[in-house]
Amino acid sequence: MHPFSMTRMNEFDPNRYLYHYTSYETAMDYILPDMRWRLNQAANLNDPKEAEVDEWMVPYANTVDRDQVEAQIKEITDYFRFNVKIACFSKDARPPHDIFRSSNLGYSKPRMWATYGDTHRGACLVFDKGLVKRNLLRDIPDAHFQFDGAVRYALEL
């Protein structure tokens, strides 16, 4: 089955679907005609902090010279920003018995519509996660690193 195939979404599985918000023009002009989306450079992410390496990610940061650590963090960040390709998706968040279920489905997130869905005028494309992963592994077999998972936000201390 093609990852863009329309399927009935009457069963609830929070890990089955991925949702991609975009403008109507991008969906119509670039994604839907060839049924492909492009992976973007990390440097082009909406939040510049998402493409930075933090000091806590460098395991030896507290044991070596501060200038050396900062230089290495900059080098790693620059490599990441310009060499890593990313596709961003949303997913379902709550079990079906939640009375506010519709506001937690991947295609029904007002903040996502405002930021990535062209201020509520765009499109939210729905993908089968398993098919997306299989197709990425098939189409990019020699990728050095492939990762998928939920973004976890934490308060800075």
* Radius of gyration over all CA atoms, rounded: 18 Å
Tell the overall outline. Answer: globular
Helix and strand run: EHEHEHEH
What's the number of extended β-strand segments?
A: 4
- Average pLDDT confidence is 78
Helical run tally? 4
The fraction of residues assigned to DSSP E strands is 5-15%
Instruction: Assign a percent range to the helix content.
Output: 25-40%
End-to-end Cα distance, whole Å, is 46 Å
Main sheet strand line-up: 1-4
Major sheet details: 2 strands, antiparallel
Low-confidence stretches: 1-9
* Quaternary assembly: single chain
Domains (count): 2
Which structural class matches the secondary elements? alpha+beta
Structure description:
- The chain is of the alpha+beta class and 157 residues long.
- The chain has four helices and four strands, in the order βαβαβαβα.
- The strands form two sheets. Strands 1-4 form a two-stranded antiparallel ribbon. A two-stranded antiparallel sheet has the order 2-3.
- The longest helix has 18 residues.
- The N terminus is likely disordered.
Outline:
Helix content is 27%, strand content 10%.
Top keywords for this entry?
alpha+beta; two-stranded antiparallel sheet; single chain; disordered N terminus
List the helices and strands and how they pair.
Layout: E1 17-22, H1 24-31, E2 40-41, H2 66-83, E3 85-86, H3 110-115, E4 123-128, H4 129-139
